[in-house]
Amino acid sequence: MLTQFLIAALVLGSTILYRKLRYVRFQQYAHLPQHPTSLVLGHLKLMGEFIKRNKPDAHVDLAFVAMHQALGRAPLMFLDARPIGDPVVIVGSYEIAEQISKSSNIFPTSPPKSSRSLTRLMYMMGPKSIFSSYGDEWKHLRRTFNPGFAKQYLATFHREVLDKGLIFLDRLVSLARNDEAFSLVHLTTRLTFDIIGKVVLESDFGAQHEDNHNANKATEGAQLIRLFGKMLDEYKGETHNLPWWLTPLKVKRRSALAKRITSVLQSIVRRKHAEILDSQAGSSGNPRSVLSLSLQDIPTLTPDILDSTCDQLRTFLFAGHDTTAILLSWVFYELSRHPDVLRAVRTELDSLLGPDDSPDKTYARLLEHGGDLNMPYISAVIKETLRLHPPAGTGRIIPAGSNFSVRTTTSGGVEEQTLLLDGLLVYICQSMVHTDPKVYGDTAHEFVPERWLDSDHPIPAGAWRPFERGPRNCIGQELAIMEARLVIALVARRYDFVKVGLGAVVLDHETGQPVVDPTANGRRYKVAEELYTTRQVTQKPVDGMLMKVKLAS
After folding, report:
1. CB 478 within 8 A of CB 371
2. Annotated domain spans of the chain
3. Which positions does UniProt annotate for heme binding (predicted)?
4. What does R_g of the chain's alpha carbons equal in angstroms?
5. Residue 414 in 3-state DSSP?
6. Which residue(s) pair with 396 in the sheet?
7. Which residues belong to the annotated binding site for heme?
8. With contact defined as beta carbons under 8 Å apart, do 26 and 47 qualify?
9. pTM for the complete prediction?
10. pLDDT surpassing 90 at residue 284
C-alpha cells in the first residue's frame, strides 16, 4: 500500500512539475520575440553555441549581437537563462530603450537597476552607491553631487587635466625612444586615475609615476592605486554574472579589498570635513573637489553620512577613470587605422591651435582657450568611438505586478504591439542599439565620424547612449568628454600609434606600407584579425590594447 502511494505521489509530482516547466518555458513569455527554446535548458544551450562561435573570452554582448541578427533584428529579444540566470529581455532598438530609461508614472526615476549586477559590483562601488540607489535616496545623492560634475565647474580643472596630460606625453616619449610594446589601456588608466583623483578628492595620486605603485609606498594615493588595481584584477576572466556561492573565494577577496579601500577613504573624508569646518569658522578657501562640495553643508559627519560618502567616492573613482581610459585607448586605435580621420583631426587642431605642435605651445593654447574651444570633428571622433566601443550596457529589473509594458512600432511610426515586461530583467545592449542598420545604414559597423556632422540626416538622440539616457544617465559624462578632448588635442599631432598583435594592420610585403581594406571604401587599413573586447567589469580590449608609439612623421 505504501509503495503504491509513493508511486502515485511521484507520478503526480512529476506531472505537476512537467506542466509547470512547460508553462515556464513555452507559455509564460511566449508573447516576446525569441529563438526556439528547450524544455530543460531554455536558451542556455543556444547561448552556449553562439558564445563558442566567438572567442571563448569575448564579451557576451558579441554573442547577443549574433543571436539578435539571427532572429532578424527584432526590437527586443527574450532569453531564458533559468535556472542559472534570470529570464532577460535584450533590447536592440533605441525606441524601446528610450521607453525603459525615461521617467514614467510607474517608475518616476526609471526602473531600478538589476539586483544581480548590483551584487556583483557592490565590492567595487559600495552598498550605498548612487549607482545602486533608487527613488528618493537616489534623488538626494544626485542633487548632492550634480554641482561637482557640472560643465562650468569642471572647466575650472582644465589646468589639472592638461598637467596630467603632459606627464602622459613624457611617458610616450620614453616608450617611443625604446620602441617597446605596451598596454595602452594600462597607460591611459593611470592617466585618468590621476585626473579623477584631482577632481573628486583634490589629491595628487601620482598614478603615472612608477614609484607610487611600489608596495612600500604608504601615501593614501598610492594605496588607492594599488587597491583599485587589485580589485579590478579580481574581475578578470569573469564572463558571466555567477551566483556568489559559485565563487566564494573570489567574493571573500573582493570583500577584504573593499574594506581596505573604505578605510583609506574614511581617513580622507574625515580630514576634508575637518578642513571645511575650519574654513567655515573663519579661514579662507573655496571648495575645489567633488568631495568638498558634497560636505560643505554637513555640520556633523555621522557614521551613515561617512559610509555613504565613501561609497560615492568609490563609485566616482572607479567609473571616473575606467571608462575614460577605455575610450582613449579605442580613439587612438581607430585613428591609427583610419588615416583620413587622423589627418582631419590634425587639420582641425592646426586650425585651432596653430601649426606648432610642441607640448608647451599646445598646452598654452589649450589653457588660453579654456572651455570655449570648439572641436567639432574631434567631438565627432569621440562620439563615433563610443558608438562602436561602448564601455558597458545597463540592466534594469521590472518588478512583477508593475504592469510595465513597451510599444513596438513599424518603420512608419505606427504602433505594432504592446509587450508586457513584468518580472523580467531588461538589458539595454548598446552594442546592438549602436549598430542598428535602420538608424546607421550600411555603415553601421564602420568608423565614420562624419555621420555626426551631417545636419541633413540627423541621428535620433536616443540612438547614441554610451552614458545612458533619462534621469539616471551618467553623472560624469561631461568630465569624460572634457578629458578625452584635451588629451587628444595634446597627443594626436605629436604621436602615431601602431597596434601590435591582435588587430595589427597588415603591411604590404614589398613596400612595407599598410594595406587598405577594400571592404570599407578605402577608409581604413586592413587587419589580419579583428580586435575584440572581453569583460573586466566593463568592456575592455582583450589584450589591453597592445601598442607601440612613435613620433609623428
Report:
1. no
2. 2-100+398-463
3. 474
4. 25
5. coil
6. 113, 426
7. 474
8. no
9. 0.93
10. no
